[in-house]
Amino acid sequence: MAVKIKTQFGVIDISNEVISTVVGGAATEIFGIVGMASKNQIRDNLNDILNKENYSRGVIVRQEDDGVIVDVYIIVSYGTKISEVSRNVQEKVKYDLETMLDISAKAVNVYVQGVRVLKD
């Protein structure tokens, strides 16, 4: 499915893949985020951090009449306050969707899939 935006010049279709890439990029910019995790770790056989090309595996986008609902699967850094990092992800994802794609996020659900110790 895609989000359709009607303008005076025609219709713009934004695919879920594009939305997932924007959401993944926004989430990984937040301090305390190690990276994105796969939403189906057992099926995908991925226990690793996803690359930029695979952000869609860590994001679920569902369309509603009054906006989109986004589920984000992340891995956080050890020693950070998980609730604060999750709140920052929600705010950044919502802001980026509204400014970059002109899409309103009805809800941004954050699922912490793991905690990693960063090696220096």
From TrEMBL:
This is Uncharacterized conserved protein YloU, alkaline shock protein (Asp23) family. The lineage of its organism: Bacteria, Bacillati, Bacillota, Bacilli, Lactobacillales. Belongs to the asp23 family. It comes from the Bacteria. InterPro entries: Asp23. It comes from Carnobacterium iners.
